[in-house]
Records
---
Amino acid sequence: MTTMVTVHRVNAQGLYRNADGTLEHSVQRSQQAIMSYELSHLRELEAESIHIMREVAAEFENPALMFSGGKDSIVMLRLAEKAFAPAKIPFPMLHVDTGHNFKEVIDFRDKRSADLGIKLIVASVQDAVDKGLAQDETGPRASRNRLQIPTLLNAIEEHRFDALFGGARRDEEKARAKERVYSFRDDFGQWDPKAQRPELWNLYNGRIKQGEHIRVFPISNWTELDIWQYIADDKVEIPAIYFAHQRMVFERDGMLLADNEFIERMEGEEPYEEQVRYRTVGDMTITGAVESDADTVEKIIEEVAATRQTERGATRADDRSSEAAMEDRKKEGYF
Amino acid sequence: MSEILRFATAGSVDDGKSTLIGRLLYDSKSIFEDQIESVTKASEKRGMEMDLSLVTDGLRAEREQGITIDVAYRYFATPKRKFIIADTPGHIQYTRNMVTGASTADVALILIDARNGVIEQSRRHSFIASLLRIPHMVVCVNKMDLVDYSQEAFEKVKEEFREFAMRLDVPDLTFIPVSALNGDNVVDKSENMPWYEGRSLLTHLENVHTASDRNMVDVRFPVQYVIRPMTDEHHDYRGYAGSVAGGVMKPGDEVVVLPSGFESTIKAIDTLDGPVDEAFAPMAVTVRLNDEIDVSRGDMICRPNNQPIVTQDVDAMVCWMDERATLLPRKKYAIKHSTRTARVMVKDLHYRLDINTLHRDEAATELSLNEIGRISFRSTVPLFLDEYRRNRETGSFVLIDEDSNATVAAGMILGETPS
């Protein structure tokens, strides 16, 4: 290993490491006025995403935007706003609510849909459990993560959605790196990684038969750092839990989990107060916080650029179970 | 300089492609500790120290078989640029994946083993890169460590490749001697090859000049979606949303809308962040016109004195991508071209191209999976198109099987069928 490491001026994902070891922002880079016929990387990514969203709005009967309250879906919603302005976004938001969400996120979701004047459809895991479509896990490691799959598929069937926007990015996870922007799902909502439609230029094939649908990932080519830079550049509002705050947490499997009513602590898991923030937003039962004093977007960008752990690796118990955990869940119809 | 650079690589495990990408990501510190940890674990399982190719092979089947099956997209950034890598398999049975990855690439990265020189696979990859008109080609002569970092070995491969590339249309060609395994000339200049005066691969990629690759002359605006808020505030607003596919558009410009032929002038070019003075590719904007004319999705806005070819009869090169059925003359397909969707009938298959030898087989009667050939087709409605060599966006299309809904062909337009 040692023979491979050399000294570099380039830091992770685009921060400039100066000779004295300090980091220089690449946000400034994207804000530079570009006088020639060139777009900054954020504006080029933005244009690509807007193009995809307009294609879907034009070609599908009944699309919806899956909104989790996480930063990626927040950026996606902002892009949808841009794609159709000054008209309203021509499709509803769909939230798969496990009932184990952070309150800040739910409040944020409600406020955003009200501000945009678009319909919010909530597909509730609790309802699915009550109806017998899904069954709660028990024990200290119980999570409703997998229960989102039948809940979502049921909502798709009930509302007859033919296209669903998702905020997945290809840099997140290795199975996602291979997924198309238009990801075809069969009658059962399944993804078949070996039978994906070729996707060339900016031509997307959205043809489906009844009962099938397409998951559309307009921010496929964005990285975590791009998302944060865009949030900074465009002054996009995000829920407070992304910023450093005091919280009662306990440690499990090297992650900091919030002490909350939905999770049963095991022996030796003593809660304590810590200054933390969240890098991803999911269920309270599986989403870990990281120790941080980053209380502004700028500080978060600095932290993200200097970090040596992927966001899923660091904060998601669901992806740690095996090397192909995400691939397996996606095949069943996960986001 | 454009901040995003998309590059495509093709190759098999043996020629070190995955190792080279792993090296770029690793040395630019774009892979993370948890990824390195999982790669190290997986490598140990196979009795290897650290197999950088495992960074890129994502699907279970790929890891199990040790091959790349599908296009994988990878991301890394330096202070100068954001890079998007389309990493594709090199074997002939995955030609369609290579074509897919090449369709949006600015740079083609070709790997050649310094010991073996230009082999069939290198020729095939280069041909696909030139067919898809990737504007820049970088040939990495790899495994220089195994030929004692010899300049002579490098020059020999270079000469051989140049000779072959003369038959292709490669506007910009660069050669770099590297050792992906040891990192020579990948991120940093190698001390083992003082005779090499060029840049390292990463420095070269950071500096590739892509500004002149897009068509900034011919105004092409395929209308994607009509925006009509119908609110009190924007009662009469009618905007044509789309992505600029060529040229520079400005308020006040005289324009013509196809197919109607109605002329007007641009009133404003809107975005949520406010109106803009100019729009150019690949900007996604909303155009308003000064006259109320009928414009809908699939129409094209351009300049009266610079219009695309308007025709129903098209000649094109196609790459067949379907494993279930073959391309047959007389068969009908759906076509997606810019924002137009129509139906076409294949009239002629002129020849099938052997992508290893470039030999044209004029006796061919069908195209099957991964085969490339020249066809003529007729569409149900006129298409507004340019030659692919002039504009990759208005010159490309896909064919869709109307029964299976599969994307069955990728097409590059040569022009109107000569009568």
Note: The radius of gyration of chain A is 20 Å.
---
Amino acid sequence: MAIRTKKFSRRSPLAAVIVVLAGLLVSGGSYVAATAAVTSSAKAEVDQATIDTGKKLFLANCASCHGKNAEGTANAPSLIGVGAASVDFQVGTGRMPGQASGPQLQVKPVQFKQEDIDALAAYVASLAPGPEVPTEAYLAQTGNASHGGELFRINCAMCHNAVGAGGALTQGKYAPSLRNTSAKHIYEAMVTGPQNMPVFSNSNLSPADKTDIITYLQYVQENPSVGGDELGNLGPVAEGLIAWLAMLGGIVVITIWLGAKSN
Amino acid sequence: MSNAVTSKKKGGFLAGTANYLDERVGIAGIVKEFGRKIFPDHWSFMLGEVALYSFLVLLLSGTFLTFFFNPTMAETTYDGVFGPLKGAHMSSAYASTLDISFEVRGGLLMRQVHHWSALLFVAAAGLHMLRVFFTGAFRKPREINWVVGFMLFVLGMAGGFTGYSLPDDLLSGNGLRIIDGMLKGLPWIGSYTSSLLFGGEFPGNQIVPRLYSLHIMIVPALILVFLVVHLFMVVIHKHTHYSGPGKKDTNVVGYPLMPVYVAKAGGFFFIVFGVIMLTAAFVTINPVWNYGSYDPSPVSAGTQPDWYIGFLDGALRLAPTGIETVVNGATVSWNILLPMIVGVGLLGVVAVYPFIEGWITGDKREHHVLDRPRNAPTRTAIGAAGVTFYAVLWAGAGTDLIATNFKMSLNQVLTTMQILLFVAPVAAYFVTKRLCLSLQRKDREIVLHGHESGRIVRLPHGEYVEVHEQADVYQIWKLTDFKEYAPTLARPNANGVITIRARIRSALSKMFFEDRVSPVSKTELEAAKHHAELH
Amino acid sequence: MAKNSKEVAKHEEVAEHDYATGLAVITEDKISDPGIEPHRVRMTDKSVKHEKAAARQVALLFAISILGSIFAIWAYYAFPFDDTNASSLRINTLFLGLGISLGLFGIGIGAVHWAKTLMPDAEVSEERHQTRGTEEVRAAALEVIRLADQESGFSRRKLIRRTLYGALALFPIPAIVLFSDLGPNPKDSLRHTMWGAKKNTRLARDPDGTPIKASDVQIGSVFHVIPEGLEKLEAPHMLNEKAKAAVLLVRLDPSEIKNDKEREWGYDGIVAYSKICTHVGCPVALYEQHTHHLLCPCHQSTFDLAEDCKVVFGPATRPLPQLKIEVDAEGYLVAPGDFAEPVGPSFWERKA
């Protein structure tokens, strides 16, 4: 855990500023309006009262590990510059507050109400600029699923599997299944790079690209497998088990009936 | 001929047809010769049939697929109904696979039938081989048929692999990439071999049509040839049977081909077909639309081959780090060669095992009565060790899924497998051998002292004893009908020299037969009966 | 069985093994075979009622089969594909398969039930013959071969025989040579990638082909990279080149990089490595941001990005080759030239 702390703190606030700026620059064209909507609405929502509530919640629930000013301690990384998106993802999926130490943070039942999470996020975002919580405009499944699928295979499938069923990483870490992850949390994971996941900033995958990816994942989640039970999308290993246990096993039972004498 | 003519007078359509055929193809002789041939009945004798029937289903469903599949790698843009791939660039092979799945009614069902029956074909052949091995059915005169069957198993794997790669999807493409990497690792000829297979650089645009030729012509034709030889030899040898009352090396006990066996085996074909069809109706296999078309840059987590190639993939994963060396400027990829040697070596041992055992036992008799596995403890133990070795390699191909599903570290799982590969087969050997010897001793107990009835009786002088029920003559025969083998000494030959061959043979025979349990003899049985009567 | 004196004695007896039985101990003291067990009569043999019931069951099963097949034909037409609704395909596949299964199971189970309950179930014994021919047959066969040999002079005429062997050994060789054009001599195609095709090729995003600026790459992010212009190549060259030129681009904190060459060949902590595994060529693409490990999903080779991609786990031996990168006047990342060594799996003449 100590290792992670060290690395987290190394992400300089400057880098985060670059991300936001680059993101704004790259996402031109039809997304200008949407982007503007994000910044303005985000600014409008965040009033000082919310930040104060967030600070109280932070001091009560997070400061023991992350430090009174979110500057980080030996046990947990600094949160300065991680942005509202990071808080919304980590707390909103139940990963934070962290419990048992292990190779990576586990998904648990969410500990806070969404408004408390928003307040926490607002407080952390007030410390230094960082990735913001995306608005609905990015999460609408109006992207190009075909392009999203291609991007997903190139950037995500190696860890998360071709349809987001998840997969193994080194030393007990793993890429989680994306089957029940909300569009918002998927988006936030891409911009913040939680734990060992790399960051997919807007200069790498534009907001439109991210919307495409989310559209693809939504398609996969919402449409049943046309061939029948999909065996968790685990591929040939699961298929082999079915062939041996269900098919050949079933047939062996039938052969026993066949070979047995009738009464 | 005159008989046939006279028989025509009576009977209706059936007799007429029979007469017509006999006068043209001489079918009466065939029916007379084979119609009442006896086949022994036992569930384990039907495993080979499962493989045969799966192959027939493969031919039927495969023919359907050839009508719609386009085996070329010409680039095309997808404009079919599957949304998440619309507008994607892909090969015609992949596009036509999508069309079979999404636009041909019943096409997806047939694809799934074809793929499930391929998995079942190799699985059933493997289980059938295990049955033949553990019952000693490969012994004289069936050694050659064992080799023919082994060839069928290998051809099954070849047919499966060539078919798996045809849709040109991401999963199978990465499989081909691994094949390319393995070929390149061959000494001297590696890069040339890869170029010959792929028609130049990987992936090129040749591999799918080439694999298609192999998959729909060469491999099935070879399977058919070996299948015919395999079945022809079964007819020549007549089927083996398990030891039991009235069953001898000189007879075969069972049901006649017509009508019982035809009804049972014919019905069984429909049942196997039904199981495949039902699985295909309910369970997705190889959802190629999820994987996308092949592109050398992406890869999906959980990239695995079909189960029968798994042991080779596992062998690749289990190779230790850093064993590639450079010798005189030549790169020797031991991390590829070693797994290949292990995989091919394992198959090689399987292929020649009957000859090894035949040489050790020096047994030149014909065997038609099967061994119960416990009555050949060393063979059974060797088989168990081999199965365990294979199973560890096989599980090795699923290390990532084992790690994620059982919440373990991928690295620890792999390291454990590396250790198990050596430890588990040895443990399996000794445990199995001891288990067999114990079971044989239990059989002796049952023959000599009968079954424990669970009934406790008090004798007049106060002693409590459990009543044993004498086994009946049929069971006694079943438990005592086997041969004991004694190890041989290394003896000098005519020139008075003890050859190395003789020494090896003697050592092996000692390993096989030093620990053994003899069948109960008539004298022992009578002595036991006499003893029981004294009580 | 503990070795008792009796067994030792037996051992002595069988010391001179009979040719035919090998190491088997043939004992005279064997328990005798009681013969085939008496036939157990079935209910269907004893009672007409049971027999009739069984016959009805068989007929019912065949009738179910008929219904199943009809259902399958009906389902084929009754559940058409609707292009806008994926579940229509699911339903068609399911009911078609279900109907056909029923058609098959009905016949199969019916036939077996018929055989088991209504056909005779007394086991019959048939004599086996030794596989080898009788002495007369073998003698006759030998005579045929001897005659053939004598008439052709096969053993006698050494010259004919030897030239025939030679001819037979050589005639398949042209057939093997014929296959040489399956693929060209690879020559040095394995040593070059598209990065060396021209100087200062820009690094571009996979698959869109847009070039990447150094300022786009932040610490912790990963880019999947192709040479600019690759996506415009014709098939199959596009895939062939991509299979060699695919690159992974990450930015590390320069202080974390432990290898001088790695730092020099990068730009301000941005480093580019071949994505093709040095084991058997899968794309090594699983990047862990904090451990900076790269994991191959196929065989679990693990490479450490902070140490010039040396192998830290798994079957690979060689580190992933690094692609030297620079920044051009407009701030885009470019590769001044090709990899310094062949990428991907090893081959015999790799070092030559």
Note: DSSP finds 13 helices and two strands in chain A.
---
Amino acid sequence: MASYKHTAALPDTVLRVKALESLLTEKGLIDPAALDELIDTYENRIGPRNGAQVVARAWADPEYKKRLLDDGTSAILELGFSGVQGEDMVIVENTPSVHNMIVCTLCSCYPWPVLGLPPVWFKSAPYRSRAVIDPRGVLKEFGVELDPDIEIRVWDSTAETRYMVLPLQPEGTDGMSEDELADIVQRDSMIGTAVVTAP
Amino acid sequence: MVLTKDMVAGLVSTGGSARVDADVAPIFKAGDRVTGRNINPVGHTRLPRYVRGHTGVVDRDHGVFSFPDGSSVGQDKPQHLYSVVFEAEELWGPDAADNFKVYVDMWDDYLEPAP
């Protein structure tokens, strides 16, 4: 089990989850093998590498990018990614004059098929409450200092649409292959709390 | 029915969209000025308090979606869902931080035409 000091999960919460899981298993309401499969799926198979492939394809192929911005769900399915918490995807594009960032002020809505499960900070009350009132301040704490001329668009995932940011392709990376491009795209740049830099 | 291991992959890759294939007319369109209704339901809602009573502009129409305030009590009322954009000053006053906007997904029942 992960070290607690890096997460907000309290041992009390962990104990409660364990107790609930035991009880549900004993009552035959859940199958522990299915739980393990779900956890394995989101820990090892579905994660932000999926989203990075989508971004790299969009950078490398202008026609794909057009489809992605027009109908995110279908374009993402072209790469084989779909499903729970990504049924209705909207991709928002960063440009030299616009920076997008994603939040869910009401809970923790997040595009699972392309980014996996949300990081703890994404679900935390400070991020959720401050992203919509002081996005520049929040970005600064993530190490991102944007020019004051750049407009920030904060997307609050209040419904079933799920948002992902198409980051700005860094200069000097035009000659890179799609795989190489995917390698430089990190998770936070697709949430909008980071920018992609050239290697 | 208990979810078993062999059902997980299918469930995960399929999911279930809240989009509803129903012929419901939109009340608003992109470019319309709209105000978040100042409603305070006792039950479930996905209308954030910080936009209630504030005016924004419809950015896009996402289509017809299940309405959570209704579906949460077994009385769904599918309707159009929009992305509504609010200027920072409209939400947070004249001292609001500079040069940003907030886009919030809102259903027809959360909105009224701006005065």
Note: The domain at 47-191 of chain A is CATH 3.90.330.10 (Nitrile Hydratase; Chain A).
---
Amino acid sequence: MNLFSWLGRKKYSHTTKSKPDHPLPPSARSEPISLSLEHNLHKLGDLFTDTPDMIIRTLVLPDTGEQAALVYLEGLSDKNAINNNVIKPIAGGIGSIESASVTVGRVGRLREWGPITNAILKGSSVLFIDGRTDAILLGTEGWPQRAIEDPQLETSLKGAHQGFIESSGQNIALLRRYLPHQELKIREHQVGRRGDTRVSIIYIADVTNPEVLKELEDRIRHLDVDVIINTGELAELIEDNPYSPFPQLLLTERPDTAASQLVQGRIVVLVDRSPSVIVGPATFVSFFQSVDDYSTRWSIATFIRMLRFFAFFVAICLPAFYIAVSSYNFELIPVKLLLTIGEYRGSVPFSPFIEAIFMEITLEMMREAGVRLPAPVGQTVGIVGGIVIGQAIVQAGLISNIMVIVVSFTAIASFILPNYDFVAGVRIIRFLMMIAASFFGLFGIVVGLMTLTGHLISLESLGTPFGSPFAPMRWSDWKDTFVRAPLWKMIKRPVSTKALQSIRQGDNKHKGEGS
Amino acid sequence: MKKYKLNEITMMQYIMFNSGMAVSFAFIDIPTIMANKAGTDGWIPILIGGLVTMLASVIIIQLMKRYPDGTLFDLLTHYVGRWAGITVAAIFTIYFLLFSYVGIVYTVRLIKGRLLIETPAILILVMLMIPTYTIARSGLRIIGRYAEFVVFISLYIPFIYIYTYKNMHPLFLLPILKDGWQPVLSAVPSTFFGYIGFVSSIILYPFLKNKKQASAAILISNGLTMLAYLFITLVCFVSLSPDESMKIHQPTIYVLKSIELSFIEQVEGLFIAFYTFIFSMSWIPTLFMMAFSFTWIIRKQDHRPTLRAVIALIVVSMLFFFPTYDQLLTLIKLSSLLVAMKCVSNWKRY
């Protein structure tokens, strides 16, 4: 017996080992439908066993007296459209079906069982008519969907209050509203053997670099999965380095962010049934930018940018720095502060590392609890956490006051960063830093930073360097990093996207500018 | 015939690569060495040494222009024969191995001596090898980016030294040339160990994206190196009295003791820890180039197996032998000798 067989999933005799496949075998997919309606309905019954939501409405065409049957899945189809635009005109009986009577936008003809089953499963209705070798496809899709709301994850003060929703058709519409231009192109792919998810790649043809586009398209085309439920799954499958704690593709729920990234030369990938979209190629700096930066005054946006970069280092290093300073490098801190720390630390029975790990894990648990709990219960977490982390734990002499301050400062710093996925990576790094600091003090932190730097600069996003514009150094891209330069100064698109058309605007210098 | 197209580096990366490699640990020791050889005139040999190196490197670049898409080894194989290529590649392998070994051990010594006195040296070494492997395995482009980044974030260093202005006494430098040219000229050869990083420019030449900038790049890079040395030597000479300069070990760090800030008691420890970034420039690129030369000899593409083996070797060797600073300086002189040998042998061939 193989030594590592326990690692694999247990196999049971009744499960099939074959890969997930289309519900119909290849031979049946191209099988044409029969002339006889009765035969067709019988076949349909064979194909869709245990499908109580399937409706078969039989009709008689009044003009010709032909027998017909309308087939659709209840719930996936728009009942109003079927009743008013299909059944009613057919029963009224004026003219031929395709040309006049059916008042549905999308109409087609299907001859084979494969496309017919697909169409029914996706919400279209199919009309079989006795004595004909083709069935009529009627676009009557209408599934439950929510209204367009404010994006949950990325709130913004001044940006638009429309977020992407779960239908890619609507999402494309949201993007087209920002960029009504014929160069905005969409390429569609079907991904997943069971899910058959529609993945749309959106780009501006005369701006986006075709090599990057090809890279992305190849990766999507080679996927062989069951189904893609959420955009995050797709991102993980096509990322350059899935072992990194940092995301290399930007996920956003905001149409305005996606549109602004499109004009910078990036590519947007929409996944049907998922409210977030992938933006790539991303750089390290992408995760520090927020859509509000561009609509607040540039000097203030610059200040906030710098605050975010500072917060990034605080979130990574501060607990580690506390450990280093209080267990190795005492000489760094002024004597007065050292005495204060010593006074509080005196009554604490644990080493700074245990203290810090304990507090950080408590904080992480509280954060996770707050995310998963329903809103009314969620408040309890805040109260309990406030009391425990706040005062009681210090009075009980378990944790020093300074540590509480350090942890709260770290928490606030990590909440400043606008991207959720990126912050998740930062949290993991923080723990590694704390371990390094507990063994090697300040030197451990520096080696940790070195490894982090090495890792970040060797990452790539769709084949373009992730560390840009810092490493490789691209000065012209610095206008949108630590500083958010005035909009009329950002004449070029970022170099990191390898955009074909590099100039994005003309001379917009203010007329009033003392000339 | 663009063999190394995928690994191109920009001019900026080329400059930072060479300067970063050259400056690294020589920055700590050069003031003492100069003070011992030439007294307070020690900064003059640095200038002369820098100019000589610039000249030498420009000559080398001119030679490399004859065969722009191959390394020096390819060039030699092309003109002289495969064995000439292998010999030179072997010399380079040994040279880079020695250089990186000295760099690593020097750093471990310094960290152990000043920051982590109780920690076993082997642990510090293993810790340093983590980022080393992360960066060096990814190839030249990544190392180029790293070099750029390191030099960039180290721009704070001059400002720290300027902060010691209160203790500076420019009069220490006077009179200039008080003992004549003799001691100054005799000190010039010992500056070469600080400039020796320029040999990397030979290996890197075929990777440079725009070959026309090579001469300018090498001049800028050597100029930067020279400026760094000149700066630190002058700072040490004006901060310490002529007698102190000769006696104090690693004056570059000692000078920082005079700084007092309200929020940091001693800048020194922080400085040493963050200087590890610059130190790393002395062994990460060199280890890569060592592996590169070696894989050229054995005609393989992937440099990573060699890299892993050498890293393991260095770690194991540390268990048995932990050289002192003096032994390290002897080693680096030995490697300089190797380069000199190589230069002479090349000269004969042309």
Note: Residues 9-13 of chain A have pLDDT under 50 and may be disordered.
